[in-house]
Design goal:
The structure is a homotrimer. The first copy, chain A, has a 12-stranded mixed sheet with strand order 8-11-14-17-20-25-28-31-34-37-39-40, with helices on one face. Chain A has a 10-stranded parallel sheet with strand order 9-12-15-18-21-26-29-32-35-38, with no helix packed on it. In chain A, strands 10-13-16-19-24-27-30-33-36 form a 9-stranded parallel sheet, with no helix packed on it. By secondary structure, chain A is of the alpha/beta class. Chain A has 3 domains: 93 residues, MurE/MurF, N-terminal domain (Udp-n-acetylmuramoylalanyl-d-glutamate--2,6- Diaminopimelate Ligase, Chain: A, domain 1), CATH 3.40.1390; 214 residues, 3 Solenoid (UDP N-Acetylglucosamine Acyltransferase, domain 1), CATH 2.160.10; 32 residues. The N and C termini of chain A lie far apart (103 Å). The first copy, chain A, is 20% helix and 28% strand. The radius of gyration of chain A is 29 Å and the shape is flat. Chains A and C meet through helix 3, helix 4 and helix 5 of A and strand 23, helix 4 and helix 5 of C.
Chain lengths: 357, 357, 357
């Protein structure tokens, strides 16, 4: 299939600069694109490629200052990244028929399970007693959906996801392979003989609508009540969410971050990768936390930016980090100052003595 | 089902304060509890809820100092957390019939495997040649138990756990979904051409009795001999245990921590989340290591507390961390001191000159 | 089976010191070895065991300086570790017949899939439409190989691995249980209402020949193009590789490390455990990065060694870390210096006044 600059511009409400009949047949990243490719530039880091690229059409922000000549036909839009995302979506719909339907003959579906219309249940998937798979949901091969668990309308559960008993997944949720939802929270009471007694974890996990969860994450069930991932949350891969945690709407968390038990995170927070957050704290809305930070205290003021382990105010923390690098020099300056002061002291005391003479 | 304060108190040897006929039908966390709920307060952080809660019955430590009026009927016990855990266990037994029995018709069980009485083998589970599943063990759907592997009496292996050949799981062990036991240790010999040659990993993993392992953990088999998780150890989710590691009895490790090869950890240690421990070191009994620490050296003295990356003595490390935050101020003080000293020096040398004149 | 020192030495081109007829029947680590065992010493940390060990035969580097008497018969070779690895490999071939063949009757293999000669497809494995499993490849129980995916000659895919549609695995690759290859990259465009719109991820993952990937790793598919793991790369467990990352030949990465999107890592790098690397940077060949480091900038000079979070030059970083530990003392010295300088100032100004009198 070929698309012209004119056709693409009309899809994304863009303005063509160059040949409206320039045509493309596939998409590529700006650094890899060649003739016949459609690409985009949104991140300033990649602007240099604009001038070198052999792409036939490039989507750019209309705010972009073009500094030298560009071979490609440009399509100028308000937000190149979003426009390109929209095109990818259309493209994706065209090339792949992601939606499947029907229950594979090898699947094991409990007689008491409730299966909606147009549902896909893949090979070797297991659907427990009284589970509910709502209309259009996609359960890929080898998934396990426990007793009384629910998967909402049009949600997509990739192969090998394990959802324990009683957990509830909302509508339009995507869960990637290997993720475990509803394993027991980590709760043990220390005994006199040094051993630990397991605290039964009788709560569940609730994942609200439009959430996406990456691969091989673990989200523990609540001791009592629910661990809750609210609407629109996006979790990357290998993330650990402990029992009774709550994550607010539209909060985004990068890979390998861990949130300890009962912590409540606000809405629209942005949390980097490999962050650790202690238990039983509260984090205000719109908090941003830098990668590898360790958060040990509640954040009460919305829109706070934090970094470091232990984490504190982003700007101050960066200053301390910069000085940390200079510590050898600082130590040297301290030593030389000590020497000078000692000499001055000696001189002065000598002088005093000589004065008194 | 309803239970009165009197009935509950008799189960946990507690003392009722308030209405002995107050009754509850379910359990809830203190911050969520409403009329008809049983709850508890053990963590001082949650004491404030005691005075606001609508719970009908609250279990508290008898050492707790009640500072104002409480609506709920109280049951005072020595250890509220343990008592509540005991009740949850009873409750859990009542509401859920966790124990299953029988081999699912879709399971693939080798003819040479030895299956004990009252064992559950779920749908699509695979039991290899000469494997041994002991009496009462629970193998959930989609598990793979390799050739010659053993699972002990009453152990519970949740769906999608993979146990490689020759690994041994003790009695009353719980392993959560997605955990991999017995994958090859990470051992490669560098070659002259820059490539690496795999070192075969011919050992196994031994998990002793009463261990609980969280979801999506990885425990590598030994190069030779055994990687060993001793009695009563509790591992949270997403933990990495490398080849030939030994973890002592009753040691507890929080999520996302990684232990490198051949390291030996003592008994009753408490290790936080996201900790990294280098290989080939020894850690004394009762060591406690703060979250996100990086341990690069052996710990020889039992009961040592450590933090930081690299980790050292907890108290000293906290002091350095506090000063780290003040580095900008310290640098400022150093600069102003340098200036003062320079002025003094100038003054003195001037004076000396004028004195000499 | 028994082997004599003479026989073993001839296999590894070693020189016997001691009884050439000394014989062994199994292998053990030097610290565990007893009579009848073959062992080796390569790491200087373990040299002390050489003199205590009851092993019957020990392989050592011919450069090793023997400082006291050794009971065992020694076999001296250029590289004890590699020689031992070679022996383990032979031993492994003898004791285990790792290679399997045939398609299990319970496996689900698409009619359009292309299955090579001598392939093993285990129980409950799923092979999608137009997938290609090349000659001699081993697909263990419960794996999912997506539509159009490829697994190369003699590659070994352990149980429960999930390979998404269109991903390509080379020859002689080993992938351990639970690893997910080809899940969607983490890409979302922020919307005005605070929610996020998913960017379709239409690329794939290419894993080249001779790569080994540990258990429960996650390797995301590219937004466009390919996430690429080049020849001979070795990845430990629980590693996160984001979309469009490239990892150069023979680079080795320890457990729990995460690489963010579009970063390009050179060849023959050595990256420790729990390292975090930001997106969109380039790392030169032969870079070494210490465990728990956080890398935020490109590394342009090959053979650079880095540590810290944020990471910089290894040696300077260690110096700063050493001073960090001394910060309480340094603060004390600064305080005492301030006091001395204040006294000197006072003295001098007094003097000045008295001089002027």
């Amino acid at each position: 299939m070929h698309f012209t600059a004119e056709q693409i511009a009309s899809l994304i409400q863009g303005k063509v600069e160059g040949d409206p009949q320039a045509s493309v047949s596939k998409v590529a990243k700006i650094e890899d694109a060649s003739t016949g490719d459609l690409s985009f530039v949104a991140n300033p880091k990649y602007e240099e490629y604009l001038y070198k690229s052999n792409a036939s059409i490039i989507i750019v922000n209309d705010s972009l200052n073009i500094e030298s000549s560009v071979k490609a036909t440009l399509i100028k839009v308000k937000d190149a990244y979003s426009s390109f995302a929209l095109l990818l979506e259309r493209y994706n719909d065209l090339i792949s028929n992601g939606h499947r339907s029907g229950i594979d003959s090898t699947a094991s579906v409990s007689e008491s399970a409730k299966i909606g219309a147009d549902v896909y249940v893949g090979a070797f998937a297991y659907i427990g007693d009284n589970a509910h798979i709502a209309e259009g949901a996609q359960i890929y091969p080898g998934c396990v959906i426990g007793d009384n668990a629910q998967v909402g309308t049009k949600s997509k559960v990739y192969s090998g996801v394990r959802i324990y008993n009683d957990c509830i997944i909302g509508d339009n949720v995507i869960i990637h392979s290997g993720t475990v939802i509803g394993s027991d929270g980590f709760g043990f009471a220390p005994q006199k003989d040094g051993s630990y007694k397991k605290i039964p974890q009788i709560g569940n996990v609730i994942v609200e609508d439009n959430v996406e969860i990456g691969a091989n994450c673990t989200i523990d069930r609540a001791t009592m009540g629910s661990t809750r991932i609210k609407k629109g949350v996006k979790l990357d891969n290998l993330i650990q969410i402990a029992h009774n945690v709550e994550i607010g709407e539209n909060t985004v968390i990068a890979a390998q971050t861990g949130i300890s038990g009962s912590t409540k995170i606000g809405r629209n927070c942005v949390i980097g990768g490999q962050v650790g957050i202690v238990g039983h704290i509260t984090i205000a809305d719109y908090t941003s936390i830098n990668a590898q930070s360790g958060l040990a205290k509640s954040v009460n003021t919305p829109k706070t930016a934090l970094t470091g382990s232990p984490a504190y105010d982003y700007k101050s923390s960066l200053k301390s980090q910069a000085i940390f690098r200079n510590l050898p020099e600082i130590q040297q300056r301290l030593i030389s100052l000590e020497k000078t002061v000692e000499e001055l002291s000696a001189l002065l005391s000598e002088k005093n003595i000589s004065d008194k003479k």
